[in-house]
Each structure stands twice: as structure tokens, then as C-alpha cells.
Amino acid sequence: MFVSVTNANVCTHSEKEVSGKILTNAIFLHDSSVIRNAVAIATSLTNVTGFSLLFGLAGALETLCGQAFGAEQFRKIGAYTYSSMLCLLLFCFPISLLWVFMDKLLELFHQDPLISHLACRYSIWLIPALFGYSVLQSMTRFFQSQGLVLPLFLSSLGALCFHIPFSWLLVYKLRFGIVSAADLESSDLLTIYKTSK
């Protein structure tokens, strides 16, 4: 029973992350190909160099919290979670530095300078999302280890309900362009964090 509930939580949370990325990219389908290319490259590189790395590092917390919960050592669950948050936040600083200089890295691999510049700008605006994601991953593992489904469901639902109208407002009405998509991902993580507390 516990394994199936945990797997359901992972699927639900991963689907929210993927759907947020899909919605963000879908908003730019009507923009120029240069912006689409920049968003696609930046999303790919930030996923590989940042979000996936944090997701993998937070995986250890799932084992530790699960063992502590099974042994009914509830204080250790909190200690492990806070330690994980701290470690992941520390990992965010070198990753952020890499994202700040992403345009130089892309030009090193002979990418178009305009696309490199836009991808760098997009990834710089994703830096707050990276820090939020590190806390989110720790909290997700905290809830999963105890079999708490409702906070994860409500936070994902709240972020989705917020994401769609806010995307439309920023991109089409306020014309913030590429910056708004990265800012949306950061605000989604803030919404998830607030509703899961």
C-alpha cells in the first residue's frame, strides 16, 4: 500500500512539472522561431544542468525519510528534510553561476549569438525557480515518505489554476515576452510552496 501511494505521488508531481513546462512552451508557439528556439534550448539546458540534478540529489532524502518514518523516528524526518534543503540550496549557487554565463557556453558550441543571448536571459530569470525547486523537492520527499497525498495534490492544482491565466496575462496582455515565461515557473514554485505548508 505504501509503495503504491508513493508511486502515485511521484507520478502526480512529475506530471505537474511536465505540464508546467509544456504550458510555458505552448504560450510561445505564436512567437517568432528565434524566441521558440531560445526558450527550447534554455529549457533543455536548465533542466539538465539544474532541475534534474536537484531532483536526483533529493532522491536520497526519500530513502532516509522513509526509513525514519518506518522506525517512528519522526524528529529525524524533519532533520533530514532541513539538511536536504540546506544542501540543495548550496548546490544552487554554482548552478546559478553557470546559468548566468549560459550565452558564453552556447556560443562556445557555435550557437547563434541572438539565440544564445535570449536563452541566457531566459535562464537568468529561471534562477529564482531553481532555489524554489530545491525547497520543493525536499518538501515533496517529506510528504511522500509519510504517505501524505493531499498537500501535494492541492499544491499542484493551485499552481496549475494560477499558471494558465497568469501566463495569458503576462505574455499577451502585458507583453512581457520571454521574461514572463521564466517568471511564471518561479511563481508556480512559490504557489506550490505556500499551499503545501
Automatic annotation (TrEMBL):
Transmembrane segments: 38-61, 82-102, 114-136, 148-171
Pfam families: MatE (PF01554)
InterPro entries documented for this protein: MATE_fam
GO cellular component: membrane
GO molecular-function terms, A-Z: antiporter activity; xenobiotic transmembrane transporter activity
Signal peptide: none
Keywords, ordered alphabetically: Membrane, Transmembrane, Transmembrane helix
Family according to the record: Belongs to the multi antimicrobial extrusion (MATE) (TC 2.A.66.1) family.
Name the record gives this protein: MATE efflux family protein
Species name: Arabidopsis lyrata subsp. lyrata
